[in-house]
Write a structure and sequence with these properties.
Blueprint (H helix, E strand, L loop, with lengths): L15 E5 L2 E6 L10 H13 L8 E6 L10 H9 L3 H20 L3 E6 L2 E3 L1 H8 L2 E4 L4 E3 L14 H9 L1 H10 L2 E2 L1 H7 L4 E2 L5 H13 L3 H13 L5 H15 L3 H11 L10
Parallel strand pairs: 2-3, 3-4, 4-6, 5-7, 6-9
Antiparallel strand pairs: 1-2, 7-8
Helix pairs in contact: 1-3, 3-4, 5-6, 9-10
Length: about 270
């Protein structure tokens, strides 16, 4: 029998990690440099999200940054500098690793919420993009600034995922110009689900995460999976896929609990099975 991992197996070295009430909080914590990513933190984040598939006692994840910023992207000295001198094989290994982080976030069954304050740029913007939901603050600035350093805007899945969040034309503008998207634009365009005060953005994100973590988490995981899978389906295929997915969910204990609670005029106590 496959045994699920426990949350206490994780002890990350390159970012903050805390678990409470079924919710894990990941904190990018190099505030003196606006929380950039390094080769090591990329890999550790990727590996953690891959293993979350097997963790039963974490039902939702919040990703945030320390010191008033989310993430400034790849570290200029620890990543950008070394990349300039690499051969193609090593460059491709790196770009595939960064893309694997996005794939791992998307594949994790937990709902992932990004709590974004201040700078959210480059690879940091792509991590936020990979999340299921995003909370921001009025001073949050999001930039996919790859063209500003002579690269293409197509990084870590941005040309596929960002248009689905904010629309093709808006995504094209951000990816071509590398300019910052203000919090007001981000909320109007659908990038931010909510814009709240800086002092409450993490708490608000954690509150929603707890709510979801105590809901029908099997159903939430299925919703996340279908949101991803149906990108490449036609309408007829999507309707059939949803029929099959919903039939599976109808066999869960949570579905029965919800029915019996409704009959008893009570609130259902979901357990995720």
């Amino acid at each position: 029998m496959l045994t699920a991992y426990s949350a206490d197996r994780f002890a990350p070295k390159h970012f903050g990690w805390a678990v409470a009430d079924r919710v894990a909080t990941i904190t990018l914590n190099r505030p003196e440099r606006k929380n950039p990513l390094t080769f090591e933190s990329y890999a550790e984040l990727r590996d953690l999200f891959r293993e979350l598939v097997y963790v039963a006692d974490i039902r939702a994840v919040v990703v945030t940054g320390a010191g008033g910023n989310f993430c400034s992207g790849g570290d200029v000295h620890d990543i950008i500098g070394p990349l300039v001198g690499m051969e193609m094989a090593d460059l491709l290994r790196f770009t595939r690793m960064t893309g694997d982080l996005v794939k791992a976030i998307r594949a994790a069954p937990q709902t992932v919420i990004a709590a974004i304050d201040g700078i959210c740029a480059g690879a940091g913007a792509c991590v936020a993009m990979a999340a299921d939901l995003r909370f921001g603050t009025p001073r949050a600035k999001t930039a996919f600034l790859f063209t500003r350093v002579g690269l293409a805007g197509c990084d870590m899945g941005a040309c596929a995922i960002l248009p689905r969040i904010i629309g093709q034309g808006r995504a094209a503008e951000l990816l071509f110009t590398g300019r910052s998207m203000s919090a007001d634009e981000a909320e109007r365009w659908g990038w931010f689900n909510r814009v709240v005060a800086p002092e409450s953005v993490l708490a608000d994100a954690q509150a929603l995460a707890r709510e979801l973590a105590h809901g029908p988490t099997f159903g939430h995981a299925m919703t996340k999976k279908m949101l991803d899978h149906e990108w490449t389906m036609g309408i007829e295929q999507a309707i059939e896929a949803e029929a099959q997915a919903q039939a599976i969910c109808m066999q869960t204990e949570d579905f029965a609990r919800a029915y019996h609670a409704f009959v008893a005029k009570q609130k259902p106590a979901f357990k995720g099975d």
